[in-house]
Design goal:
Largest sheet: 7 strands, antiparallel
CATH topology: Creatine Kinase, Chain A, domain 2
CATH class: Alpha Beta
Oligomer: single chain
Shape: globular
Distance between the termini: 52 Å
Order of helices and strands: EHEEHEHHEHHEEHEHEEEHHEEHHHH
Number of domains: 1
Radius of gyration: 20 Å
Helix content: 40-55%
CATH architecture: 2-Layer Sandwich
Length: 373
């Protein structure tokens, strides 16, 4: 078979946010998606695997200010409709104490088939991410960008990490969501691919062997999205403040523009070693966040903070061209004031280790759009 890539004309950006629905009193997750979606417009609001989640989809935007306005409006509308049902919204990579066993799975054919085919890894998939789509002009180019952007996966994990707690305990990780996600088949790092034809052949094999039912079942950390004509970055945790989510979106937007304008060399011959280094660095970022030490291609180590600073300096001219200085300041503040996982831990251990109160703290950060610990 042949998968047709629908190219985007000009660089565009769009977001998907997997938003939690919580009970106003208990602060636990609540399965209200059916009731809320019946009151929301179809465009921009979607079902997710669990009924305690609603996915917000931005429209295709040509600038970050346009994106901010669209996402802010949709979050506000969702919060308003949720309040009418005695619920509230929460933005974070995981819920601090809710248990996957108590959640209702959405009764669509797709999700029921996933549950039947994959079983427990789907059942415990109680995590919440930020997906960033950037428009790409042709199929082979999206594969080039996929290969070139993979080395920055640890950087994105460290900056966005917002899931230190899961089902009531401190996991010890900066991003537990990353490791939970990897339990799914066809998830994790994308394989090295020379061109679109190779991706097409791989997908054909997956379909022929019933490893996937459609291209939607490829859950790589970064993947091409043929129908939208985008490269989709899926590795980021959802973060509690809107400005953090927009800052990560801005970073990915600028990175793709940079890689598009600065072609990288062909795939290295030692791809197995490069893949291992990237896999190890991804683990270190999920474990230690912005305090991780990354392995370098020459077998040394370097602070991920320094690598992120180099990345920000490299992309600074593109950010300035697009008027993204405020988002660059937010990224800098994440390094100096703490990523979400750090702020959550600081607040939790300084305030009686109360997981329900931690939900209040996350909501306060969202309401203030500020770092509060």
């Amino acid at each position: 078979m042949t998968i047709h890539f629908c190219p985007s004309s000009g660089q565009s950006i769009g977001l998907e946010l997997e938003v939690q629905l919580i009970d106003r009193k208990s602060k636990d997750l609540v399965s209200l998606a059916p009731q809320l979606l019946s009151q929301l417009p179809e465009e921009g609001f979607k079902w997710e695997l669990f009924q305690c989640t609603i996915e917000i989809n931005s429209r295709t935007c040509r600038s970050l200010p346009e994106l901010e306005g669209d996402v802010r409006q949709k979050l506000s509308l969702l919060a308003e409709v949720a309040r009418e049902q005695g619920a509230e919204i929460l933005l974070s990579g995981t819920h601090p104490f809710a248990h996957w066993h108590h959640q209702k799975i959405t009764e669509t054919l797709r999700y029921q088939k996933l549950l039947k085919r994959i079983r427990w890894p789907v059942r415990q998939f109680l995590i919440f991410g930020l997906h960033i789509h950037v428009g790409v002009s042709d199929a082979d180019k999206v594969i080039h960008l996929l290969n070139a952007s993979k080395r920055y996966i640890p950087h994105l994990i460290a900056l966005s990490a917002s899931s230190p707690f899961w089902i009531g305990f401190d996991t010890g990780l900066a991003s537990s969501r990353v490791k939970i996600f990897e339990a799914l088949p066809n998830a994790g790092l994308p394989p090295p691919l020379p061109n679109w034809k190779a991706f097409d052949h791989l997908l054909s094999l997956m379909l022929k062997t019933r490893s996937v039912e459609s291209i939607r079942d490829i859950w790589w950390d970064i993947r091409p999205h043929a129908r939208y004509g985008t490269i989709e970055t899926r590795i980021c945790d959802l973060m509690p403040t809107l400005k953090e989510n927009l800052a990560l979106a801005s970073l990915v937007f600028c990175l793709i523009e940079f890689l598009n304008e600065n072609p990288s060399p062909p795939l290295p011959k030692n791809t197995s070693q490069q893949h291992w280094i990237l896999s190890q660095n991804k683990w270190r970022a999920a474990r230690y966040g912005v305090d991780a030490q990354l392995i370098t291609p020459n077998n040394g180590e370097v602070s991920i903070r320094k690598e992120i600073e180099r990345m920000l300096n490299m992309l600074q001219p593109i950010a300035e061209k697009h008027g993204l200085n405020k988002h660059w300041q937010t990224l800098s503040n994440i390094l100096t004031k703490g990523a979400s996982y750090q702020r959550q831990r600081r607040w939790f251990y300084a305030n009686g280790k109360n997981p329900r109160a931690l939900v209040d703290f996350l909501q306060q950060e969202y309401a203030a759009d500020a770092f509060l610990a």
